[in-house]
Amino acid sequence: MKKMCIAILSLILVYSFFREFTLARVLIILAGAAAGFGISRLPQRAIEGMKYPLIIITFIITVLFFFYPHVVIPEIARMAVVFVSFYGLAFYLIDIENKKQDFFKELTALSILFFSSGFNLYVSGSLIYLISYALALICFLFILGRYRIIAFIAAYTLIACFMIYRQKTAILGSGLTGLSDINKYMLLGTSFALLAISFATIVKKNTFSSMLPFFGFLYVAVDIFLVIGMKFSAGLLYQPILFLAIIAPLAGTMMKTEGGRP
Question: Can you give the residue range of the structural domain that contains 120?
Answer without folding.
Answer: 2-258
